[in-house]
Amino acid sequence: MSTAIERHLYDVVVIGAGGAGLRAAIEARLAGKRTAIISKSLFGKAHTVMAEGGAAAAMGNANSRDNWMVHFRDTMRGGKFLNNFRMAELHAKEAPERIWELETYGALFDRTKDGKISQRNFGGHEYPRLAHVGDRTGLELIRTLQQKIVSLQQEDYAETGNYESRIRVFQETTVTELLLDGDRVAGAFGYYRESGEFVLFEAPAVVLATGGVGRSYKVTSNSWEYTGDGHALALRAGATLINMEFLQFHPTGMVWPPSVKGILVTESVRGDGGVLRNSEGKRFMFDYVPDVFRKQYAETEEEADRWYTDPDNNRRPPELLPRDEVARAINSEVKAGRGSPAGGVFLDIASRMPAEQIIRRLPSMHHQFKELADVDITKEPMEVGPTCHYVMGGVEVEPDTGAAFGRVQGLFAAGEVSGGMHGSNRLGGNSLSDLLVFGKRAGEHASAYVDTLPARPKPAKVDVAAAVEVALAPLVRTGGENPYTLQQDLQVVMGDLVGIIRREGELTDALKRLQELRVRVANVSSDGGRRYNPGWHLALDLRNMLVVSECTAKAALEREESRGGHTREDFPKMSPQWRRVNLVCSVDEAGEVHLDRKPVPRMRDELLSLFERSELTKYMTDEELSELEAE
Amino acid sequence: MKRHFRVWRGDASGGDLRDFDVEVNEGEVVLDIIHRLQATQTPDLACRWNCKAGKCGSCSMEINGKPRLGCMTRMSTFTEDETITITPIRTFPVIRDLVTDVSFNYEKARETPAFAPPPGLAPGEYRMQQVDVERSQEFRKCIECFLCQNTCHVIRDHDENKPAFSGPRNFIRAAELDMHPLDDRTDRKEFAQASQGLGYCNITKCCTEVCPEHIKITDNAIIPMKERVVDRRYDPLVWLGRKIFRRDQLESAENMAPSTTVGVAGTSGGTTLGASGVPHSSVRLPESAPIGPDGRMDVAELLAPQQGGLSPFGEDISFPLPPEYITYTHPERDKNQ
Ligand SMILES: Cc1cc2nc3c(=O)[nH]c(=O)nc-3n(C[C@H](O)[C@H](O)[C@H](O)COP(=O)(O)OP(=O)(O)OC[C@H]3O[C@@H](n4cnc5c(N)ncnc54)[C@H](O)[C@@H]3O)c2cc1C
Ligand code: SF4
Ligand code: SF4
Ligand code: FES
Question: Residue A512: which domain range?
Fold first, then answer.
């Protein structure tokens, strides 16, 4: 087997070609740096393509009272005050500029009557705030950035006669290791998926923009790319992860048929009158209204049904409880044996309104089920269940620059792979704007960092040789386990034991099983050669999935409270003490995961003053409150 | 229940159809079957996919000879005893199994001049009406599955036309920019005609038929682009003169990157122009559009004996083909190229 390694020299290497990666690359190129973009799939097909709803930015086009302070407040509330306040602040302030900038790259958003960018309502946002293009906003975003990169390449072509003289896209290329020179980033090592050949990028600065981790779960809205590579690369390079216990589960993903398992069913189905039923046909949500919400939610089906037409004199149906409550309820029904055949519950709109009304109110859902599943939602109920959707946790970064914390230097992170911005729960639409704001910042600061270096760091030959060996191991080994079986087993452990509702016993059990899996993964083998061999690729991704899963399980066991995307059945309340704590993961030389507690940074006073005191009392300890008083 | 499948396996050096019996469950799509094959019988079977929801355009393949997205082709659309034959898309060189080298499409996209922002408008000052952006928005729905490129007979089995022909995906990109309310360039149609090989297209509409996003490629993009080019340069002599003039103009313009009429000849396979200023092709010269006495083109479906274009597979064939009729051999790359 040839172990020849192709070598490339760049100033900035961006790993990931989603919204965050492309925006970072544009910025690095504009700063005059020779830039490489690396992506596991084809250019323009990263996960960002799947986002539907929109990108949140307080442009105030739909309601002129909207501004960055309102957006900031919404984001902090959504994240239950655990967010890194500085990131939330920068995000709210800069999102409008970043969206407007897209128009100068050629984006065509839906318009308001006076010709501005139209903005739509979304859960948790006080005013209509999401810039959108129908239900394909992510596609517009990624295509726009892709085309901007092409236009920069055209400028370079005009000047140098070579499209790739300043910015080059390495598509279908996977990075498996970051290389260091002391504590400084010196490059990245990976392979071309097409040929299986190895490639070494020497670069003083690396931007991680690799997205999320959802592939470790049985039911997920995420694609095969989401194996937590960036998280794991950062850990192994000496950086740290925060908030890894917080995963967003959307309550209504499709569970049947298998071809569409995990795909989202929009919340407006419930908003428009859809109800949840168990296998006995019972509308079970009435049994799951928690005391704190008792006053706002209906107690009888009759009252709930009246709400749709007369919301002023009736209370809301319990199907419209917050996402985590609904997800929890569905989970309990399934566990009690009252689930649907495919392990979800029934979402029924067919019996609730005439067919033509369903088609008029929910055209895209009707279309989605027809095209993907051959299910006519005007005749049959849908089968739905919670689906793993987004990871709030990620690389711990310096808010202004996106530089990773920990001992490593020259490593930056942006997008879903970075942590802190969304706290314990992300608001819909805040991700796309997050990609743009922090993608730009990471690209800019990575470039600035390169300028400060007196000499280029060099990757060590032994490290490269070690990376080659690790990459080839599954092919060389014979008779080891099949990577697909291992992935399925991992998904079972994470889905069943570190899923939406967590318990101490199950988490301890999960950690034990992850240890067992680790031994098996170390022994994985794959048939076939190096050319486009998905079995081999999966075998290499597994170790990343595993270490990231371990971080999630460890942090979930440690955090003894329920908050946002982390629900502990044994600690069902939100605790002000725990709000002050971030859980930080790192790995040591031997690859063991360590967990440390770190205080959450204290919000600046002028930002604190944006909130009513009565609201702060819900989140803060008495001690913090009396400190406030004293000022 | 087990069903019978034939899947093409191999690489650039050759390959063949292999037989598999695979478990199929209710509600599954073809991509699920490929995943089951990977998990149970052929862990190294190569296939692209990402979203499994028809949003990313990765999983293009030919199923019983029809260009389709694997994730949007339900198993229930086949009869129970039917053999399902899966082959890679045919217009692009095979890398391995169902994965092909689609870099042609990215190169052609790179030769199409990008959006030119209007001078004097700061970010945030763009004002456009919904009705005006909708035409371009239709084309921006494109998920770049390249099924249209794969189907177009100008390059399907005609590698020699590839240098001169950008294909329907890039025609809609040119049309999108042409119809963009604020794009600052006015020569999108001329560019499409002169450098993208729009003239090769004879409006068979096969591209429209296979587009999973239901973009009306021919009616809404190609025909309007042709018409307006026709309007401006109906007289071929005037056209030639103007074309040369435009080329001068293009070369002196700023930020024009590769968008001269000679494309990016030589470097990444743009059009090479002969002495007459027309592209070389071993097959045929670009056909000019069929223009009526009024200087406009017929709207094809109103006059044609049938709706839509002719099938690229011939009119006397219906799908799916019985397996014994599929004589698939993957085109070999021309060694002299
Ligand atoms: C169904 C769905 C709907 C959503 N809807 C919305 C919405 O309406 N609004 C919103 O704001 N957010 C939404 N989100 C969330 C949002 O889409 C994502 O969080 C966001 O797109 C992530 O972008 P990113 O740039 O961080 O990474 P991605 O776009 O996921 O890109 C990751 C990139 O990294 C590359 N990569 C990964 N690992 C490696 C490696 N080892 N080597 C090389 N390259 C690698 C991948 O190939 C890819 O190019 C939605 C998510 C889903 C799944
Ligand atoms: S109409 Fe026919 S010839 Fe023209 S681009 Fe489409 S498939 Fe090709
Ligand atoms: S125009 Fe349609 S068929 Fe062609 S690449 Fe785009 S989505 Fe695919
Ligand atoms: S997997 Fe994305 S279109 Fe089929």
Answer: 477-579
